[in-house]
Amino acid sequence: MTKKCIYCGAEISDESVVDFCEKCGKRVWGEKMFNAIIQNMEEARNKGDLVSTNMAETISKSFSNPVNETEDEKFPAY
Ligand SMILES: [Zn+2]
């Protein structure tokens, strides 16, 4: 079974942890964030808890958490 990029429809490797190609991923998230997402997704897959229907959630978690933590440390609420 071949996967296809959800953005441009290009064929992507079956081993890819995400449902989009590298080109579109970098266009949507930027190269740095794309690499971070891939890393997070691969870690999740290695742990065996990657479910394809949860992918969007996993992605949003993987890039909202570090930002929030940094901002909390920089700007205390009180
Ligand atoms: Zn694409």
Amino- and carboxy-terminal Cα gap: 53 Å
Q: What percentage of residues falls in helices of 4 or more residues? A: 55-70%
Order of helical and strand elements: EEHHH
The stretches of 5 or more residues where confidence is low (pLDDT under 50) are none
Tell me the strand percentage band. 5-15%
Average of the residue pLDDT scores: 78
Number of helices: 3
Explain what this protein looks like in three dimensions.
- Helix content is about 60%, strand content about 5%.
- The protein has about 80 residues and is mostly helical.
- It has one domain (about 5-75).
- A hairpin with a 6-residue loop joins strand 1 (about 5) and strand 2 (about 10).
- Helix 1 (about 20-30) crosses helix 2 (about 30-45).
- The N and C termini lie far apart (about 55 Å).
- The mean pLDDT is about 80.
- Zinc ion binds near residues 5, 10, 20, 23 and 24.
- Zinc ion binds near residues 7, 21, 23 and 24.
